[in-house]
Design a protein that fits this description.
17 helices; Protein-Tyrosine Phosphatase, Chain A; single chain; nine-stranded mixed β-sheet; 35% helix; six-stranded mixed β-sheet; Rossmann fold; disordered N terminus; UDP-N-acetylmuramoyl-L-alanine:D-glutamate ligase
């Protein structure tokens, strides 16, 4: 029997969600021998795809011996580098990379990569919208939407706008964005980084490691963490600054309510209040998106048009209803304290805050002043309520504890008066009472809509 001398390289994919399944499809299309392994159970949608593509897979456990025979491993961002299997692979010298690294090897599209502890989804969606609205052939991927690898296998784009998490950046080698955006770095996910903030900072800065002087690095200059880090590093890319505090001759900034961006030989100005997104953090997000659009040559006219027609993702400061002149806001995506800091900073009116969930080692001191000044009542929606209750008793006049979302919303309605904001901004993960933050947000919205119907009877 004739056997080719070109042995099919064996690629193992760990994790069979959106990114893992996409990586499997791309690997198969490039002629690799592919095996996918997930310790958990796969979603039926992905089982059907793998079967139709004849890609062998296992679920419920990992066949270690088979995995340790591979030439390359692509791992899901959810799997820490510290688990025994990954350690064993590295000891054997088998490269372990992320899906974004793998996909980037097979596309000639220009990559725009956006990271930061907060605001990256909004910035990614807005950047994508500005480029698409201007008629560019652009894909959206990364930590959002459809798998990057899957799109590389099946579509042809000139640009990709990628939302990139630190977990994805931990396992890159040659990943090379033409434009990299770093919005902010605040302590988050420290459980994954040995409770060492510097490890997390290093991970975020991986985004620039392969950039050259032909590329651009957009960053938020007002972040002390970022500016301190820049003093320690040599960055090859051309730097583009964003600021809310300083007027910049080159860069993008907020000046008395106006977004001004002098980037890539063009100037853009727009009143921030005219945009559909509100709050100081969204000024940063908008400036970053505008700067990217200017760098890829989008006209000022098209940028202005795109900014006006943008709609943000659900569960991020999403207005649900106004009932009896009280505005109900769903910010379920706020799974860390920093997001809540931004949320509270977006409102001038008194707030009834609904918070709580699985605490990832939160430090509530960073929102203490805002809470003292703005929050008239705190409703803790959680099984794990002691820490929040203890911290804020004496700071917030009234606190109520519940494990039921409808009960929480009913209490918020009882405690609010016309002109108030009822804000779900949990500061915590959702797994104690909900499937995920989307589920939490959806149940909150349903509970709010129940209020309206009660009023009509």
């Amino acid at each position: 029997m004739f056997k080719s001398s070109l042995v099919q390289k064996k690629v193992v994919i760990l994790g069979g969600g959106e990114s893992g399944t996409g990586a499997a499809i791309l690997a198969k299309s490039k002629g690799f021998g592919v095996f996918l392994s997930d310790r958990g159970l796969l979603n039926q949608k992905y089982i059907d795809v793998l079967n139709s593509e004849n890609i062998p897979f296992e679920q419920g456990s990992h066949s270690e011996s088979r995995i340790l025979e591979s030439d390359l491993v692509i791992k899901s961002p959810g799997i820490p580098d510290t688990v025994a299997l990954i350690v064993a692979l590295k000891e054997k010298g088998i490269p372990v990379i992320s899906e974004i690294e793998f996909a980037s090897r097979y596309t000639t599209a220009k990559l725009i990569a956006i990271t930061g502890s907060n605001g990256k989804t909004t910035t990614t969606l807005l950047t994508y919208h500005l480029l698409k609205n201007a008629g560019l052939n652009v894909g959206l991927a990364g930590n959002i939407g459809d798998s990057f690898a899957w799109q590389v296998a099946e579509k042809q784009f000139d640009y990709y706008v990628l939302e990139i998490s630190s977990f994805q950046l931990d396992n890159i080698q040659d990943f090379h964005p033409k434009i990299a955006v770093l919005l902010n770095i605040t302590p988050d996910h420290l459980d994954r980084y040995g409770y060492n903030f510097q490890n997390y900072i290093d991970s975020k800065f991986n985004i620039v490691q392969n950039q050259t002087s032909e590329d651009h690095f957009i960053f938020f200059e007002d972040s002390e963490v970022i500016t301190a880090e820049l003093l320690k590093r040599i960055i090859n890319a051309q730097k583009v600054k964003i600021s809310l505090a300083n007027k910049l001759t080159e860069g993008a900034y907020l000046d008395e309510g106006k977004l001004v961006s002098n980037v890539g030989n063009s100037t853009f100005e727009q009143t921030f209040a005219a945009l559909p997104i509100k709050g100081p953090h969204n000024a940063i997000n908008a400036l970053a998106a505008i700067a990217v659009a200017q760098l890829v040559g989008v006209s000022a006219e098209k940028i202005a048009e795109g900014l006006k027609s943008f709609t943000n993702a659900p569960h991020r400061l999403e207005e649900v209803e106004v009932i009896d002149n009280v505005t109900y806001i769903n910010d379920s995506k706020a799974t860390n304290v920093d997001s809540v800091f931004y949320a509270l900073g977006s409102f001038e009116r008194p707030v009834v805050l609904i918070a709580g969930g699985v605490d990832k080692g939160n430090d509530y001191s960073q929102i203490e002043t805002l809470v003292r000044n703005k929050v008239k009542a705190l409703i803790v929606l959680s099984k794990d309520f002691e820490k929040l209750e203890t911290y804020f008793s004496g700071i917030v006049p009234q606190i109520y504890i519940t494990q039921d979302v409808q009960d929480a919303v009913n209490k918020a309605q009882e405690w609010s008066v016309p002109g108030d904001i009822v804000l779900l901004s949990p500061a915590c993960a959702s797994f104690d009472l909900f499937k995920n933050y989307e589920d939490r947000g959806d149940k909150f919205k349903a509970a709010v809509r129940n209020l309206t119907s009660q009023n009509h009877h």
